[in-house]
Amino acid sequence: MTGFYNRSVFGSVAVATLAIGIATSAFVNDAAADTYKWLTFKPQGAGDAQAISTQWFVDEFKKRTGGKHEIEVFWGGSVAKTREIPDALSANVGDFGDIITPYFADKFPLNNAVGFFIPQPNSTIEIAHLMEKWHAKYPQFAEELANYNLKAVGFRPLESYGLLCTSPIRSLADLKGKRIRTYGFAYPALVEALGASPVSIATAEAYEALETNILDCTPIGPALAYGWKYDEVAKYYIEIPLGASFGHLIAMSLDTYNAMDDETRAVVDKLGNEYAEDYNAELEKTIAEVRAGWGAKGVEVIPFPKDELISVIDDERIQAVRQEWISRAEAAGLPVDEIVSELKF
Length: 345
What we know:
CATH class of the largest domain: Alpha Beta
CATH superfamily of the largest domain: Bacterial extracellular solute-binding protein, family 7
Shape: globular
Number of domains: 2
Largest sheet: 5 strands, mixed
Number of strands: 11
Helix content: 40-55%
Radius of gyration: 20 Å
Structural class: alpha/beta
């Protein structure tokens, strides 16, 4: 994905201008406010697990505070677009928001740990629980966010990925020379280690690239393959166990969180702890529905030998990417061996 990890272009001037304009519309953060603001790039009524679980959080917050407090969701980037949300929360333009963590690896390297360790053996809910554990056990994860006036209150990993391809892939030999979409840190190194060619193409452009044979494969999960309609033009889903990627933080302005009364803050903490389970349940439901419909769409699901994938993990290119995160984590004083052991096959 072109520019996938670039720093947000939402500069301080833009934040200040937006904050001033929003203040005139009663968007100013107020510790006594009855209504909090949730900033998201998701369109209202998207109907996917992300949007559904967001609405669940909002509805439960109002119910559990007895209607004393509520959250208004500003859907579809109407207040801050995807790459603007962290700075908007930092500036108290919003109170809650969705942060696609890998877009900001320069700001949040520790919280992007999973992105350096693809492939890894954990599922969506397992990654969510690992993130919860790391935040509870190691203060460095929360401190990294606090540097930007942010606090994580929930975790939304992406689904476990395989490869969606335009031709059958049944072994490592079949991947040789294939053009595979890559982004971030780990995927380019992994694709090269598999003997394929990494191609950087934006998410929105991948459909056409698969359709016109610019790409042979893209790493993706069933729900996203269906959501982006890639399964209309690529009819082979390869069950290569890449694992789940860490995707989104459900974040708050730290100022807002600290200004809440103890009772309201306890509601937020409880909802955050429950969020991953609700999100994962919705995601698994979607995945099951997509898989059930693939036969009628002509999509073939093909197993891939797990041992052949594991055999390339010691490749120096993959290990160099992992070492990059390890070096950063060691500099932050984290017990690296303990964390890394949970991301290894």
